């Protein structure tokens, strides 16, 4: 199963030489690997390339929802995982949820969120978090992330720290943030066994 490689911080293709992978915009990077065709075999291949970074999905998935995209970054420049699930809600129609777990400095979460950052740390306010989710069995506090001109209009972005890594949630449209609530469950699928065969795949690839 083919995986395509690109920069984790932008959509540019990368070049390879004997020593490194290079992005024309960001220099030496650890590449983001994404499938050319979304499905179980490609998902298993990506999971084999992941180091010890969790790969999160909302689980159990709501009826009619599916996994539209996924990928990983693994290398000396840091590691990350990303999944995008799509479905519908009564209020918002088509909804897209992207979840990124990443080491500091990777920048994949910011790319998916469409914000001009690398890490969200400086954007987290000293106020109470907007929501707490359960990721891998632990409570994780999340704060809203604004772009340089304020809150993005077409999406809602939340981020927080989980076990020394950044956890990003990006929802499109912005109003879909109302789907989040305390104790919302994210499961680390790297630990899945037989339930992995129940994962549904399909849907339009995300715009990031």
Structure characterization notes:
The chain has a domain at 54-198. By secondary structure, the chain is mainly beta. The protein is globular. It has helices spanning 40-49, 108-113; strands at residues 3-6, 15-16, 21-23, 27-29, 32-35, 56-58, 66-73, 80-89, 93-102, 131-135, 138-144, 156-162, 165-172, 184-188. The strands form 2 sheets. It has an 11-stranded mixed sheet. The mean pLDDT is 89. Helices cover 8% and strands 38% of the residues.
Summarize, please.
By secondary structure, this protein is mostly beta strands.
User: Which class best fits the helix and strand makeup?
Assistant: mainly beta
**Hey, roughly how much beta strand do the residues contain?**
35-45%
* Parts with pLDDT < 50 across at least 5 consecutive residues: none
How far apart the termini lie comes to 22 Å
Total strands: the figure is 14
> What profile does the largest beta sheet have?
11 strands, mixed
Number of helices: 2
Helix content: under 10%
Report the radius of gyration as a whole number of Å. Answer: 16 Å
Average pLDDT metric:
89
Order of helices and strands: EEEEEHEEEEHEEEEE
Order of strands in the sheet with the most strands?
1-5-7-8-9-13-12-11-10-14-6
Anisotropy-based shape: globular
What is the secondary structure topology, with strand pairs?
Blueprint: E1 3-6, E2 15-16, E3 21-23, E4 27-29, E5 32-35, H1 40-49, E6 56-58, E7 66-73, E8 80-89, E9 93-102, H2 108-113, E10 131-135, E11 138-144, E12 156-162, E13 165-172, E14 184-188
Parallel strand pairs: 10-14
Antiparallel strand pairs: 1-5, 2-3, 3-4, 5-7, 6-14, 7-8, 8-9, 9-13, 10-11, 11-12, 12-13
């Amino acid at each position: 199963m083919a995986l395509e490689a690109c920069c984790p911080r932008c959509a540019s293709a990368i070049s390879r030489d004997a020593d490194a992978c290079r992005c024309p915009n960001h220099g030496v990077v650890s590449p983001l690997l994404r499938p050319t065709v979304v499905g179980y075999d490609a998902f298993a291949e990506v999971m084999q390339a992941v180091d010890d970074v969790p790969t999160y999905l909302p689980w159990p998935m709501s009826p009619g929802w599916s996994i539209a995209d996924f990928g990983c970054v693994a290398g000396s420049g840091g590691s990350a995982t990303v999944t995008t699930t799509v479905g519908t809600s009564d209020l918002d129609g088509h909804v897209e949820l992207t979840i990124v777990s990443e080491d500091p400095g990777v920048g994949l979460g910011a790319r998916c969120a469409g914000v001009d950052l690398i890490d969200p740390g400086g954007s987290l306010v000293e106020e109470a978090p907007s929501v707490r989710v359960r990721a891998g069995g632990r409570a994780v506090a999340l704060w809203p992330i604004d772009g340089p001109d304020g809150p993005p209009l077409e999406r809602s972005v939340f981020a927080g720290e989980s076990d020394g890594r950044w956890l990003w949630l990006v929802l499109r449209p912005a109003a879909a943030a109302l789907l989040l609530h305390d104790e919302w469950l994210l499961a680390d699928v790297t630990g899945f066994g037989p339930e992995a065969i129940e994962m549904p795949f399909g849907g339009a690839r995300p715009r990031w």
